[in-house]
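Now read these lines:
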Amino acid sequence: MSAFDSGHTGFMLVATSLVMLMTPGLAFFYGGLVGRRNVLSIMIQSFVSMGITTIIWYVCGYSLCFSGGAGGIIGNLDLAFLRGVGPLTPFGEGHIPLYVFIAYQMMFAIITPALITGAFANRIRFGAYLLFLVAWLFLVYFPFVHMIWGGGLLAKWGVLDFAGGIAVHNIAGMAALASVLYVGRRKVADSVPHSIPLVALGTGLLWFGWYGFNAGSQLKVDGITGLAFLNTDIAASFAGPTWMLLAWIFERKPKFLGLLTGAVAGLATITPCAGYVTPASAMLIGVLAGIVCYGAVSLKNRLRWDDALDVWGVHGVGGALGIVMLGLLGTTAVNASGQNGLFYGNPSFFVKQVVAILGSSVYAFGFTWLMLAAINRVTPVRTTEVEEQKGLDDTLHGETAYEQGI
C-alpha cells in the first residue's frame, strides 16, 4: 500500500484547482474584449473545452502524452481509459497519486486550445471549432507534451520548459497566427472591448490561477515551488506597468487595458523559466515581456493581421521569448535539475532552446493551417457577413448576454 505525502498531495490538488480556474478566467478575459453581441460565442469556446478535452484526456489523451514512445514524438495507448491506474498507483517518486498528476495535466490540456480562440473571435462557426479543438489536441498539443514532458524527443535532447512556454503558449500563439491568416479579417467592425471590468476580472483569475500553473509544475512542495511562485508574480508585476508606460508614451494615455494585457504577457513569458531562473532574472524577463510583446502587437496592427485578442503577440511571442530567456539566464545555482544558460557559460543549451522554439513555431503554424483547410472541406469554417452583422451569440447559439438596449 502506497503511503502518499499528504502535504505534496494536498498542494497539488490545490494547484490543479487553480489551473482549472484559469479556463473560466480566460473566458471572462476574452468575453470582455469582444463586442456585446459576441460575448457568449467566445466564452462557450473556453467552457466547452472543459468537457470535450476531459473526455479525450480520459479516453486516450493522457496515454498519448505520458506513456511509451521514449525519445519519440508521441506516446502509445497503454494507458487508454487509464487502464491499470488505481487510487494507490504512485506518480514519480511516490509523493502523490498518479490520479492527481493526471488531473493536473488535464487542466493544461483544457486551457491550451482555448487560448487560440481569441485570434478568430467573431468569425468561426461553432461546429468547425469543435472539429478544430479535437484535431489540434491530437496533432499539435499531444505530440509536444510528449516530446517535452513525457520523455520524448525534445526532453531527450535536453530542451527545458518548466510549465509550458513551448507546450502551451508558443504553439497556441502560432496556431492563432495561422488561424488569423487562414480565416481572414472580420467583415464587420466590432465595438471592442465592450467591458474592461470583465477583462480585469479575467486577468485576476488568470493571475491567481497562474500560481498553480507555474509553482504546481514542480509537482511537490520545496524551495523550487516557492521560487516559481515568486518569479511568476515578479514577472507579471514588472510586465504590466512596462506595457502601461509604453502605451502612455506612444498612445498618450496610461491604458488600464494595457496594464492588464502586459501582466498576462509577463505571466506567459515567465512560464518556461519560473523554476530555473533567479528573481532578478524574472524581473528582467518581465520588463522584456512588456516591451517585446507590446512591440509584437504594434507590428500586428501595422500589418493589419486581425488577431482580435492579440493571442500571437502575447502568448506566441511571450512563450518564445521565455524559452529564449531560459536559454540565456537559466542557472543550476537555483535549480540543480535545470541547465546553465548562455550567460552562465553554456552556449549549447541556448542553441537547443532556440532550435526547439523555431521548430515548434513552424510545426504549430503549418499543422494548424492544414487542419483548418481540411475542416473547411467538411464544414464551412467561417461565418457569413450576415451572421457577423447580427452577432454570433444570437445567430449561432440563440442566446444573448445582454438585453437589447441595455
